[in-house]
């Protein structure tokens, strides 16, 4: 048996085209949810109330747009590979939630599109990740920085907490209905759980991968999503149930996450810029 070809860190054409195909659906869905949250029953796959639940799902889609745009133009596979498991988990969770609550969905074209997308996306994205797995040999970019273990562990812990909480909402949606920061149904509770799970799956690879280049697309995408959630909380503050203890906790967690993720991303980017300057300086005669 011949030896396998060495990893080339390529992004396959199929991976790029999958990202390009997914982006318009995310753009349309996010636009509809943000612009017409009160008309989701006719324009979207199901009627979502209150509008803040629609905004939360749209915020996840905004982050997805940034990630898949980065995938479409990425020159190396390792720069985007850690986002693919998160897509599989998120899309798979929404497929399960859909099948559990089919009676809540509208019998319209948006639902048909929704069903096709969520029935195929987890399989397609997982298949691409498996097909590309040998492309990343663990080598850093030509200009790269190693993230120290302390901030990596902190971010993994934050992500794990978000994932576990999201998993609890998904597994016991009726429990979430009674205490969440805004009114939920069992379906929107599971959708909320799926959204919260994203950061946990994205952050987990920090346990074994210290290359900042492997997260330069993912963390800005998470920041964009968090910023969209923060704006949603401001715009739809009337949907928040301030008599519930979870409301100030959730608002505080979103604000804290923006500060933590923003500071971490800025710090890594400053170190990366310094490494780039050092490399250019070393090349000068």
From TrEMBL:
Keyword presence, Membrane: yes
- The entry's keywords: Membrane, Transmembrane, Transmembrane helix
Q: Which top-rank group of organisms is this from?
A: Bacteria
Sequence intervals crossing the membrane: 12-34, 54-74, 86-105, 111-131, 152-173, 179-202, 214-235, 247-270
This protein is called what?
Uncharacterized protein
């Amino acid at each position: 048996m011949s030896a396998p070809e060495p990893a080339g860190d390529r992004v396959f054409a199929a991976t790029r085209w999958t990202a390009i195909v997914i982006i318009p659906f995310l753009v349309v869905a996010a636009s509809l949810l943000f612009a017409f949250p009160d008309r989701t029953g006719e324009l979207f796959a199901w009627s979502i109330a209150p509008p803040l639940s629609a905004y939360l799902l749209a915020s996840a889609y905004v982050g997805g747009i940034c990630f898949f745009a980065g995938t479409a133009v990425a020159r190396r596979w390792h720069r985007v590979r850690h986002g693919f498991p998160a897509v599989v988990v998120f899309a798979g969770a929404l497929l399960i939630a859909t099948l559990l609550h089919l009676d809540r969905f509208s019998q319209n074209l948006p639902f048909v599109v929704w069903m096709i997308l969520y029935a195929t996306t987890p399989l397609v994205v997982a298949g691409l990740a498996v097909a590309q797995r040998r492309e990343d040999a663990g080598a850093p970019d030509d200009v790269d920085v190693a993230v120290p273990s302390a901030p990596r562990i902190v971010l993994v812990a934050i992500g794990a907490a978000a994932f576990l909480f999201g998993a609890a909402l998904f597994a016991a949606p009726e429990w979430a209905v009674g205490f969440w920061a805004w009114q939920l149904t069992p379906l929107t509770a599971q959708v909320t759980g799926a959204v919260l799970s994203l950061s946990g799956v994205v952050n987990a690879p920090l346990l074994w991968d210290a290359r900042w280049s492997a997260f330069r697309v993912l963390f800005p995408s998470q920041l964009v999503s968090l910023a969209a959630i923060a704006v949603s909380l401001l715009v739809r503050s009337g949907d928040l149930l301030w008599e519930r203890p979870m409301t100030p906790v959730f608002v505080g967690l979103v604000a804290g996450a923006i500060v933590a993720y923003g500071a971490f991303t800025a710090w890594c980017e400053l170190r990366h810029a310094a490494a780039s300057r050092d490399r250019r300086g070393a090349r000068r005669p």
